[in-house]
């Protein structure tokens, strides 16, 4: 599903109004009605429930006034708390304030001296707060008074439904620069805004409801370079159906180059991830001394012993064998657990310009490039890189905090600069493609922050590449499936005890889930 910036949403609204002739007041009416429907879905009958609606002077406040009217008509008690002078309301918001007042309903002005007390009293008897203070027009930080009101609401623990976006949240970045409404539900109009689906914004959004306000479909689907929220439906469409005539070669031959003394588990997890993602034939190549122990626990994969250093890591001579083997495979996964041994890093750097098969570069393969990272842009092979924020910071010579504050922009800049697909891991993993497409992944949970989780992901992406997904799709589908498997594993096992191997074990359930809910079209 496409996600948008505030400016893109405004453009869509304006085109609907000006070119399609849908009056803005109709969009606002639809928006308010949809919020009421979501409220009824949460509470059931709203009769005799008490609502406090915090209303700002912009169109978001206008939506709130529509909500107020329909709740009142359905028998609820509604308190409208205005954060502006009635005289400041304009346009469609003005129309809806007039209607409310023409109905003989009072408004309470909380922008005045005793505003805090008015809110305190209102909250003493409120079943639900509706946040219609700021929408996509908000930028920066709320003022001190609004900040106190937001904190009062958050501290009250009364359920909050945010209209379009929680007030205090930046729609484009998901950044929260001061007090921000912590919503239990957010009802957003037309398309999800980026800030609702990336962290920290996603944590303030609560359950996200994306509702139709009658924007023409041609507008919400338009454009070619897009940002998308990954959904199971999209991923299911990309997955190739198993053919009755298929054989091992149909589903891809994958070479996994991973592991070193002390990190043989990384190699095994990557290999098992590749197999469980559906690859036809998988070979694990690793330092010769580790081959017996790796092979002993991997019945379904082949193994290949590579030249090793005295420390049990890949030696420079491994490059030739890897390149030779690459002639017989469709995909390479390179990096998990290789170690930062200088000779191994040199081996990775000698290999990279020679590669021709689509390759997933992870972990120590990326660490090997630090200081020489523009090599990525000169590679012949289609590449997917899967850095976590620390690795991304090292690649770009930035602080981790800088990476985390600019996840989408940096992932896209790196993808374009090096012409690689970038998978920037962490909560709400970002996949950026050199053609400008961005995918935000909603699956996954903190239980997956455990050793080996990234190795499993590398394996899964390689397995999907083997089955013919293009690098952009393989990366995006891989992060979705990996996160969803982690979510199913956490439901059964809890987040605390979750192991990387569990993620792989739950992959079959995810594939079944996708098969059962969607009919792949391909
Ligand atoms: N026709 C449309 O464009 C539609 C808009 N809709 C609603 O309209 C919203 C956007 O409306 P607007 O563009 O009027 O803006 P908002 O209603 O989001 O609010 C912006 C208001 O907050 C003020 N503001 C911005 N940053 C501030 C800060 N840091 N501190 C204090 N005040 C600040 C602005 O000056 C402006 O008055 C959407 O989120 C949505 O809820 C919907 O009604 C659907 C149709
Ligand atoms: K809001």
From TrEMBL:
UniProt key word ATP-binding: yes
Record domain YjeF N-terminal: where: 9-221
Named cofactor requirement(s): Mg(2+); K(+)
Record GO terms (molecular function): ADP-dependent NAD(P)H-hydrate dehydratase activity; ATP binding; metal ion binding; NAD(P)HX epimerase activity
Cofactor: binding details: Binds 1 potassium ion per subunit.
The organism's place on the tree of life at top rank: Bacteria
Catalytic reactions of this protein: (6S)-NADHX + ADP = AMP + phosphate + NADH + H(+); (6R)-NADPHX = (6S)-NADPHX; (6S)-NADPHX + ADP = AMP + phosphate + NADPH + H(+); (6R)-NADHX = (6S)-NADHX
Keyword set, alphabetical order: ATP-binding, Isomerase, Lyase, Metal-binding, Multifunctional enzyme, NAD, NADP, Nucleotide-binding, Potassium
Binding-site residues, AMP: 425-429, 454
Residue stretches making up the YjeF C-terminal domain: 231-514
CDD domains noted in UniProt: YXKO-related
EC number(s) reported in the record: 4.2.1.136, 5.1.99.6
Binding positions (K(+)): 60, 131, 167
GO biological process: metabolite repair; nicotinamide nucleotide metabolic process
Record-listed (6S)-NADPHX binding positions: 59-63, 135-141, 164, 266, 337, 388, 455
Matches recorded under SUPFAM superfamilies: Ribokinase-like, YjeF N-terminal domain-like
Function, in words: Catalyzes the epimerization of the S- and R-forms of NAD(P)HX, a damaged form of NAD(P)H that is a result of enzymatic or heat-dependent hydration. This is a prerequisite for the S-specific NAD(P)H-hydrate dehydratase to allow the repair of both epimers of NAD(P)HX. Catalyzes the dehydration of the S-form of NAD(P)HX at the expense of ADP, which is converted to AMP. Together with NAD(P)HX epimerase, which catalyzes the epimerization of the S- and R-forms, the enzyme allows the repair of both epimers of NAD(P)HX, a damaged form of NAD(P)H that is a result of enzymatic or heat-dependent hydration.
Family to which the UniProt record says this protein belongs: Belongs to the NnrE/AIBP family.
Record text on subunit structure and interactions: Homotetramer.
Official protein name in the record: Bifunctional NAD(P)H-hydrate repair enzyme
Protein species of origin: Desulfotomaculum nigrificans (strain DSM 14880 / VKM B-2319 / CO-1-SRB)
Gene: nnrD
């Amino acid at each position: 599903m496409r996600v948008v910036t505030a400016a893109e949403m405004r453009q869509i609204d304006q085109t609907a109004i000006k070119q399609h002739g849908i009056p803005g007041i109709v969009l606002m009416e639809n928006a308010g009605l949809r919020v009421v429907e979501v409220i009824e879905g949460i509470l059931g009958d709203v009769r005799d429930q008490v609502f406090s609606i915090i209303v700002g002077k912009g169109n978001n406040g206008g939506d709130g006034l529509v909500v107020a009217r329909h709740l009142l008509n359905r028998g609820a008690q509604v308190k409208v708390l205005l954060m502006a002078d009635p005289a400041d309301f304009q346009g469609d918001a003005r129309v809806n304030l007039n209607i409310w007042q023409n109905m003989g309903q009072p408004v309470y002005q909380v922008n005045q001296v005793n505003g805090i007390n008015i809110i305190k009293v209102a909250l003493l008897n409120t079943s639900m707060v509706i946040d219609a203070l700021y929408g996509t027009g908000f930028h920066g930080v709320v003022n001190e008074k609004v900040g106190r009101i937001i904190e009062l609401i958050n501290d009250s623990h009364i359920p909050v439904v945010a209209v379009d976006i929680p007030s205090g949240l930046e729609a484009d970045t998901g950044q929260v620069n001061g007090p921000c409404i912590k919503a239990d539900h957010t009802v957003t109009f037309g398309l999800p805004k980026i800030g609702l689906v990336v962290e920290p914004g996603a944590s303030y959004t609560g359950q996200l409801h994306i509702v139709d306000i009658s924007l023409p479909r041609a507008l919400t689907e338009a454009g070619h370079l897009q940002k998308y929220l990954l959904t199971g439906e999209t991923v299911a469409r990309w997955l190739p159906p198993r053919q009755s005539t298929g054989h091992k070669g149909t589903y891809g031959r994958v070479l996994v180059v991973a592991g070193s003394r002390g990190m043989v588990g990384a190699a095994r997890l990557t290999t098992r991830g590749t197999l469980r993602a559906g690859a036809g034939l998988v070979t694990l190549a690793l330092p010769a001394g580790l081959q017996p122990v790796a092979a002993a626990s991997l019945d379904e994969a082949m193994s290949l012993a590579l030249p090793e250093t005295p420390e049990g890591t890949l030696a420079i001579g491994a490059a030739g064998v890897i390149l030779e083997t690459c002639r017989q495979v469709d995909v390479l996964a390179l990096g998990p657990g290789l170690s930062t041994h200088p000779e191994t890093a040199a081996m990775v750097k000698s290999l990279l310009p020679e590669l021709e098969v689509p390759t997933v570069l992870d972990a120590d393969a990326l660490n090997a490039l630090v200081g020489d990272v523009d090599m990525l842009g000169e590679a012949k092979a289609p590449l997917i890189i899967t850095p976590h924020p620390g690795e991304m910071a090292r690649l770009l010579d930035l602080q981790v905090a800088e990476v985390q504050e600019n996840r989408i922009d940096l992932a896209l800049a790196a993808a374009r600069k090096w012409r690689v697909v970038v998978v920037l891991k962490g909560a709400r993993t970002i996949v950026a493609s050199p053609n400008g497409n961005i995918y935000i992944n909603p699956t996954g949970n903190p239980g997956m922050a455990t050793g080996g989780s990234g190795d499993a992901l590398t394996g899964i992406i390689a397995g999907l590449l083997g089955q013919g997904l293009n690098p952009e799709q393989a990366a995006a589908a891989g992060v979705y499936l990996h996160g969803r498997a982690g979510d199913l594993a956490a439901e059964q096992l809890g987040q605390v005890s979750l192991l990387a191997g569990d993620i792989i074990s739950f992959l079959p359930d995810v594939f079944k889930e996708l098969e059962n809910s969607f009919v792949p079209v391909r």
